[in-house]
Amino acid sequence: MTELTITVLDAVPMAVLELWGDPAPAAKRLAKALGHALPAAGRAAGPVMRLGPTTWLIEGDHAALAKPLGEGGALTEVGGGYARIRIAGAGWRELLMEGGLFDAESPDFATDCVATTLIEHVTVTLRVESDAACLAYVPASHAGDLLHFWRQARVLVAA
Amino acid sequence: MSGVAREGATIGFTFDGTRYLARPGETLAAALLANGVRLVGRSFKYHRPRGILTAGVEEPNALVTVGRGGRTEPNTRATDLFVYEGLEARSQNRWPGLAFDLGAVFGLASKALPAGFYYKTFFGHARTWLKYEAVIRRAAGLGPAPTEADPDHFSQRALFADVAVIGGGRAGLLAAREALRAGKRVVLIEQDAVLGGGLLRDPREIDGQGSAGWIATVEAELRSGGARILTRTTATGHWDDNMLCLAQKLVEPGQVPGHGFAQRMWHLRAGEVVYATGLIERPIPFANNDRPGVMLSRAVRTYIRRFGVVPGRRVVVATTNDDAYETARALRDAGAEVVAVLDTRPAPAGADSGFAVLNDSVPQAAKGGRRGVKGLSAVIAGAEQHFAADLIAVSGGFSPAVHLHSQAGGALDWDEGARAYKAGAARQAARTVGSAGDPPASGAFRPVGNAKASFLDFQNDVTLADIDLAWREGYRSVEHVKRYTTLGMATDQGKTSNLPALEALAHAGGMTVPEAGITTFRPPYTPVTMGAMAGAAQGEHAVPTRRPALYAVHAAKDPIWLNAGYWKRPRAYPRGSETLAQAGLREARSVRQLVGLTDVSTLAKFEVNGPDAARFLERICATTVAKLAIGRGRYTIMLREDGLVFDDGTVWRLGENRYLLTSSTSGASRMATHISYVRNHLMPEAKVSVICVQEHYAAIAVAGPKSVAVMEQLTGEAPPRHMSASQPTIAGVPVHLLAASFSGERAFEVHFDARHAAAVWQAIDDAVAAAGGCAYGLEAMELLRIEKGHLVIGPDIDGRLSADDLGMGRMLNPAGGYIGHSTLHRPAFAEPGRKQLVGLESVNGDSIPEGAMLVPHLGARAEGHVTGAVRRVLGPGHIALAHLADGRARHGQEIYARSLTRGHTTRVRVVAPHFYDPAGERYRD
Amino acid sequence: MLTIACPHCGPRAQAEFVYERTVDSVVPLDAEPAEAVAALFTRANPRGEDDEIWRHTHGCGGWLVMRRHRVTHAISAIRAIGPETLP
Prior knowledge:
The complex is a heterotrimer. Chain A is an alpha+beta fold.
């Protein structure tokens, strides 16, 4: 079994895309610009991750999306508000059950699946990167607490 | 080393300081019995000597304290504790010692302590109770709780399953295997250390294998198939939607956990729950049925067959059913003498058993004291007879463990043959299998012993006489009888006593048992350690801590911290030996006279974008918004739908259709919900995007007469005038520079991407320091804002005042349309006597107690209260903000600020709530 | 502890959701004063089923209307509310 690692990733620009009114036309233009459709609820595709009914999180540079978005919605910078924490190793699912409510051990929670849930009282968005790693998007103010929690609970995984 | 030498006994443990040896896999109860220890504890109320009654979690007698220091666990059942090397167990509720206990005089005087004793004795003035309480508390009770903090960690973990099987006996193993073979995600929960349940007591051949082999085969299949097996795990509560709490012992009570975690609380959500929870055997009420040496029949069998410990040599078996004959066989096979089997049922019950069976036999009284029983008298077909014995094995029938089924809303059906309740229709997706669904038949009988010494609830010392007394005194509801007598209210929750008590109640009332009713089964099934419920929420982690982006920058200055909600914020940055008050005053004076900077990152912030942004904001904000020019901002307030003010902030027009809204730190999550509600429920068609950027933007306020010069130097351009905004860069970082003030001085808020927090702070800090200023914390902010008459959400804006009450009536949007406008014309808003915001000045120069009530003269009714009080920053004197009935019309009056809790009363003058630069001259450049 | 089927996320633990209000307590924008007062202060509060507004606050943030039995907690219907959304 590979060792379970908990790593804070370097910051990247991030923005929330929100569509208003009839979302279909803007979504079509954005799909063309992105090279893929905006992901459905609970899914991620490339740098885009569905957050809520009308919102997506875009990681990295999003300047190219402003034009196709047009008047169909807004892009709002949010990168300063999140810490991205990668939990990698075979035990990542087990670790995410600690203090949790969400079924991260379900085989249906597979690569590019996304879920926002509570872990140890903190609202966290999870994105499955592969069977061996998951990214957690943690409100920056809670990151210190949650890192401490995960590092302490790590001894329990497969213990 | 004491006790009995046994082969394979290698684990050293102590009981009351004496060292013994146990075999691996033995419970403390088994090990004590093996070592000849029969007296294990003293009872709760009467200090009666007690031994071991059961071999499971239902044990009411053999409660011990284990562990040392913060790991001490009181009231641990010796029957539910597996011995480990170094285990330290101590008996409870005795002084000076277990064998000679002075408290036993309570037992001699038991006539004086009937049901309702406390109520009757202390019915009177509370002072009377207080006088007796200390004595009672010392005399009655179990193990004391430890006073040190528990050094261990506790885990809480989520668990999901298609099928959850509770109980790892034969029926549970079969149910788990069947579910696994059907392709289900399975979890099997067993409170014992090993699987097997009743098979450990009564081995038999299954599928051509012996019990041990069969259990191992099934366990292997389950494990290899991916089923999760949790041993030492108790399903303690069954809640809605098949959510169960499981308490798992990762180590035994008092044991030092290698990885630091002692227990885990699982939160299980299951598609289907299978109760394979088995049966709980009932004792028989007779005089002195609580003496060491009276033991439940199946427990006797368990000690003999599972643990190889024979708890007596001359045994009387007393039963209402067939099952106890198996115990008689186990005793005989183990070489013990079965003196007689006393069967309450008439002949021919037991006739073909090969034992000396006496039918129509009801036990009357056990003989013998703390060293154990010496015999039993019984009434046999109307005649009394005595038997010498050192062990009395009793079986009063079997009650299915329906606790979880009942907690989950399931119905209970009375089984007349078994004289027990069994699971009826389940309300959730759950079913009962195995013996729990099919309890064996049991005869009915009438107790014949002295009722005052015939115990029902061994743990709370409740006797048959107590039930009779409760009935005679008029208690009819079983729930009332329970509370009056405390029956079933001990930590064992009456597992062994409830049914015998219901039989007694039914008899007293001339009813059937179902007519007597039944008390509610409540979680937890067995006691749960507080730590398991707290999980990681211990000590400094008891609540989440939110650290602002500048946390490390502040920490380097070693400030005095304030826990503001979940946020950790600097309260002051003391220099040298400065106190909080001294540091706060110095920092505030720096702002008044020069310049200061402070972290305001925790403010709620929302970016509002879209063609409908202004229209949306004019719903949220009770002030005008649409009239703002690009680059301008304004102070704003927000109303609830009932017209009361609940938050305030500033709104800035950053572009044609782009706004930034700030609101209070303390109301941030409430405001986020409010905004989301309005957007989603009331204005779903609006072309607007509202994104919370509270954490994206770090924010630094720079305030003081020199703030303009500092900002000009930092940005290389003329800073915006008051309530205007610009977008320069500081330290190469693009910022929103908002000219707003919360201090009474010309000031700016700098909002920027929080990832650059340290660099921007450093640049501003350097510039402020060069101008002679310094950083200030919440203490200085409080001094400054109260003097200026700025309000905070919570104390000042407390959700009970209208805009008019706060003196902000003229700020309201005259066009209406904002949330809360519809209800502003309620008559209550125009009635006299409303609390209004005022200022207070100390008449004598004395400090004003925060939170004090305001009274026109001492002894009068409170007409308001002080919401915030400080000393003046530069001049002498003390000032405050307050809510006062009809306050605006009372300017100039002198009244009292009276705090009984602080023991401080002072005379104050009512004034306008602006103590500093009321005209706002200092905002003009 | 209920399991609530979020219209966007599927079944999730109740702790992710926050109860906000009953449907009959909604004050429409530009409500007449009497209408607003009635919604705020005189609500049905039935012993039985009621329509409640919840938010998946610690999940997708979406809003939903849930028909829930106040005695048994049984949820008989859930629908999303809010702007038009993509799947």
